[in-house]
Every structure is written in C-alpha cells, then in structure tokens.
C-alpha cells in the first residue's frame, strides 16, 4: 500500500510530485528547499539559514506522516557550493544530535529556485 502525505506546514509541491509517500513502513520525502510554507518564497539568508528552513520543512512532513527526525535512516544533501558544507553541517548537527542517519552530500550545478541547499530523507513510519 502507498499513501500520499501532504501538509500545509511544509511548502506545497512545485511540480507533479508528492511532498512525501508512506510505503512498506517507511516515509520517503521529496527534496525540500528553503521555502517558507506560509509564503512559498525562498527564505532570505545564507546556507545556514536555508538549511534550518529545509530541516523545519522536513520535520513538518515527517510529523504529518506520524514520524519524526529521530526516525530518519538516510539523508541526501545537495549543495550548490561545497564551500557551504561547514555551515550546513553545523545546522544539520543541531537537528540530528544522537545516532544521526546515514548521509550523502553532493555539490550540484543548480537547484530549484536557485536555492543553496536541498535535502531529502527516508525515515521509519
């Protein structure tokens, strides 16, 4: 069984995709960028500020699915510039304080809405 997860506490999908899907006891989120869910606008600030907004968005999605950041198994972080790794990592560490999930971090040429950070996760339901 496959269930679409949607919440107004995270940004609306900006394309033909779901915010998250629950299947086989797992939650798969779409990549989240630093959009304020109230305005659908990119938050002002550097990679640290954007990472904070992205993780708040992911937390809201997971809560809507009956899960939470503490149940995240895997993250993929996409950075526009690997020079922002330290700033992203410092904020990321505040959200994953104990037994952090497995993670990959890659630099990409461009992200939606020209943001600096995008993150997706797989979590236990």
Q: Can you walk me through this structure?
A:
23% of the residues lie in helices and 27% in strands. It has 125 residues and is α+β, with helices and mostly antiparallel strands. The chain has a single domain (2-124), classed as RutC-like (60s Ribosomal Protein L30, Chain: A), CATH 3.30.1330. Strands 1-2-3-6-4-5 form a six-stranded mixed β-sheet, covered by helices on one side. Helix 1 runs parallel beside helix 2. The longest helix has 18 residues, at 47-64. The radius of gyration is 13 Å and the shape is globular.
Features:
60s Ribosomal Protein L30, Chain: A; single chain; 2 helices; six-stranded mixed sheet; 125 residues; globular; alpha+beta
Proportion of β residues?
Answer: 25-35%
- Helical content, roughly? 10-25%
> Which stretches are low in confidence, meaning pLDDT under 50 for 5 or more residues running?
none
Radius of gyration: 13 Å
According to DSSP, the number of beta strands is 6
Sheet having the most strands: 6 strands, mixed
SSE ordering: EEEHEHEE
Q: How do the strands and helices of this protein lay out in sequence?
A:
Layout: E1 2-5, E2 20-23, E3 26-29, H1 47-64, E4 72-79, H2 85-95, E5 102-107, E6 117-124
Parallel strand pairs: 4-5
Antiparallel strand pairs: 1-2, 2-3, 3-6, 4-6
What's the gist of this structure?
By secondary structure, the chain is an alpha+beta fold. Helices cover about 25% and strands about 25% of the residues. The chain has helices at about 45-65, 85-95, and strands spanning about 1-5, 20-25, 25-30, 70-80, 100-105, 115-125.
């Amino acid at each position: 069984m496959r269930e679409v997860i949607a919440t107004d506490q995270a940004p609306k999908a900006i394309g033909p995709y779901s915010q998250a899907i629950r299947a086989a006891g797992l939650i798969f989120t779409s990549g989240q960028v630093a959009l304020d869910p109230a305005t659908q606008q990119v938050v002002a600030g550097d990679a640290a500020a954007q990472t904070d907004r992205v993780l708040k968005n992911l937390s809201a999605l997971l809560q809507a699915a009956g899960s939470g950041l503490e149940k995240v198994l895997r993250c993929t972080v996409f950075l526009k510039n690997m020079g922002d790794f330290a700033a992203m990592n410092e904020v990321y560490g505040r959200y994953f304080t104990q037994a952090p999930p497995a993670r990959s971090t890659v630099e990409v040429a461009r992200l939606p809405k020209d943001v600096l950070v995008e993150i997706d996760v797989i979590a236990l339901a």
